[in-house]
Design brief:
- Helix content is about 50%, strand content about 10%.
- The N and C termini lie far apart (about 65 Å).
- The longest helix is centred in the first third of the chain and has 21 residues.
């Protein structure tokens, strides 16, 4: 469906239509015929990828139309103005503060409105927000367009970078035949390739831009560095609304007959009551929350990583039993065996796409170690796909349905094998961050990542997923990091003088750090940052407190009594104000752990007494 709610008819005839369009634009000589055959393969793969959605926990893929929720995007106010490259992440509770803050300068638009903008776009969001699904929707929406040629390239696929470079070269041929710009280049997963491949993709997009052959949309996770030559406005996917959540849950429930009598509105309310509210903002975490909800457990995961861990436990031990489903087994493998095979395949593969021979060899080795020598690896992999919907058959191989799940399983195996703690040169990505969250103390990895020029993707995962670390040393690492040259973009502190003591708004800390990843931290650590840094005399400490205070207020979380009293002693006024970009200014009194009405009543009693 499009944003207007109508169905997009994408069938076999679309491939023929796209092929005929390409043939008319490429030419009809022998070389053009060869190019058209290559292009047909490219479009055939794109149509296959965008036809359905694989959801974790579901036996079979779901038709794209059935589950897609109309996406909205948050864009800058001026279509011709390139947004500053100031990264921030929207996930978990951070959504509630960051998105609201950004709306002071940005607006929300529909996909149809977005397509009308004559500009390229860098589409950022956190893991699981639906970047791939969004591009698939755009591809399906524009596939029958008369004057537009959509080209979808998933960078996780083998030879994807080569295909991108080849198509950009083909654009020169198209431009010679058709003067107007006509290509819509949809490139998915910039964060899923290595540094060398990213450089090649950047150069190809720069060349595409210089040819004026059309516009491109490039998706990437937050905090990954995009070379400066890729000049395009930043756009972000907006969080699910309540209506989106209910529609998504309805599809999820209708997939299993045992749930069909449940009211999706009530299910969403129950998820909120169970403590899952912060996990309902985007598709992946909402799916995981529904899976965990299916059990009688009262567990309330503290982070997205913990939620994924609980969901996999449910899938492994209780999922089919709870839904009264008895899947036909072709092997004697149990849940632990299947997860073990998945972890080893994930660990051995850098990309979510795994060639068939590689996946089956890895599975065969694990089957032999488990004593299931007679089980065919292909049978085991098909059964795993049917039971969990995590690693599913794909073109010429198998594919993890989501990069987050792939990295999670790989990180688990990396740590359990003992390899992670051995001295090595780490790649600073989500996988390394997840692995750090599984060890006893992640301080050393966090310190190395902060010191690396490209370490923020790892830092954000450690900070945002309740990793185990001593708070004081990590706070010192952050003070050192933000205290380095160039990391403080603006700082202003004004403390009240004796003559200004009656003013409510003059005492304040205002400023901006070059990166706001500190907002991803859990509320307990943010509370500690305020308690630890409030009486320190440094610009970095001031701004860390300011960011922590604004974030806690946006989450509607109060300080502990100890932290509040120490901050009040340090700032000498409950009206002391904190101001940072992307958030409402916050007075210290807003974080007071004593409810304001109760505090006023207590003061009144003291006076009358």
């Amino acid at each position: 469906m499009s944003d207007g709610g109508f169905t997009i008819n994408v069938d076999a005839s679309v491939l023929q239509y796209l092929e005929q369009k390409a043939l008319s634009w490429f030419g009809k000589d022998a070389e053009s015929q060869e190019l058209t055959a290559w292009f047909r393969g490219l479009q055939e793969a794109a149509l296959l990828q965008s036809a359905s959605v694989h959801c974790i926990g579901m036996k079979a893929p779901i038709a794209f139309e059935s589950i897609y929720q109309p996406t909205k995007l948050v864009v800058g106010p001026d279509p011709n103005e390139v947004a500053p490259r100031e990264s921030y992440s929207w996930k978990d509770r951070v959504t509630q503060s960051m998105v609201l803050g950004r709306r002071y300068s940005q607006s929300s638009i529909s996909v149809d409105e977005f397509l009308l903008r004559d500009q390229d776009a860098l589409i950022f969001s956190g893991p699981g927000w639906g970047k791939t699904t969004f591009l698939h929707h755009v591809y399906r929406l524009t596939a029958r367009h008369d004057f537009l040629l959509p080209v979808l390239i998933s960078l996780r696929r083998p030879k994807a970078v080569e295909d991108l470079e080849k198509y950009v070269d083909v654009c020169l041929r198209i431009q010679k035949r058709i003067s107007r710009a006509c290509s819509l280049l949809l490139v998915d997963g910039f964060d899923e390739i290595d540094t060398v491949a990213r450089r090649r993709v950047s150069e190809a997009l720069f060349k595409f831009q210089s040819l004026r052959a059309g516009k491109y949309y490039l998706t990437c996770r937050d905090y990954y560095q995009v070379p400066s030559q890729v000049m395009a406005p930043e756009v972000r996917l907006e969080a699910f609304t309540r209506e989106d959540q209910v529609r998504f849950v309805r599809v999820f429930l209708d997939t299993f007959s045992v749930y069909q009598r449940e009211n999706p509105e009530q299910v969403v309310s129950q998820l909120e009551e169970r403590g899952f509210k912060e996990f309902l903002s985007h598709p992946l975490l909402l799916t995981l929350a529904c899976i965990v909800r299916s059990t009688s457990t009262s567990l309330q995961p503290r982070s997205a990583l913990r939620l994924l861990e609980y969901a996999l436990d449910v899938l492994r031990f209780r999922w089919d039993e709870h839904k009264s489903i008895d899947r036909q087994r072709t092997t004697q493998l149990d849940g632990s065996d299947r997860i073990r095979i998945l972890k080893h395949i994930a660990y051995a593969a850098k990309s979510p796409f795994v060639k068939a021979i590689r996946a089956e060899v890895t599975a065969q080795k694990q089957l032999a170690l488990l004593g299931w020598d007679k089980v065919q690896p292909r049978d085991a992999l098909v059964e795993i796909a049917q039971f969990y919907g995590i690693l599913v058959p794909a073109e010429d191989g198998y594919e993890f349905v989501h990069r987050t799940i792939h990295d999670f399983l790989a990180a688990k195996q990396w740590v359990e094998s003992g390899e992670f703690v051995r001295p090595q040169q780490y790649e600073w990505n989500a996988r390394t961050g997840y692995a750090a969250c599984f060890i006893e103390d992640s301080t050393d990895i966090l310190g190395q990542a902060l010191a690396a020029p490209d370490g923020l993707p790892t830092v954000t995962e450690i900070i945002g997923n309740f990793a185990s670390f001593p708070r004081r040393p990590v706070a010192d690492l952050l003070l050192k990091y933000f205290g380095a040259d160039g990391r403080i973009l603006h700082h202003e502190r004004h403390s009240p003088t004796l003559s200004e003591s009656g003013s409510k708004y003059s005492p304040h800390i205002q400023g901006q750090l070059d990166n706001d990843f500190i907002r991803l931290a859990d509320s307990c650590f943010l509370d500690f940052i305020i308690e630890y840094c409030c009486d320190r005399t440094s610009r970095a400490a001031d701004l860390m407190v300011a960011y922590a205070a604004c974030e806690l207020h946006a989450r509607r979380v109060k300080l502990t009594h100890e932290s509040y009293n120490k901050a009040l002693a340090a700032y000498k006024s409950e009206f002391f104000t904190f101001v940072v970009p992307g958030a409402k200014q916050v007075q210290l009194q807003f974080l007071c752990p004593v409810p304001r009405k109760r505090l006023k009543l207590s003061n009144a009693n003291e006076i009358t007494g």
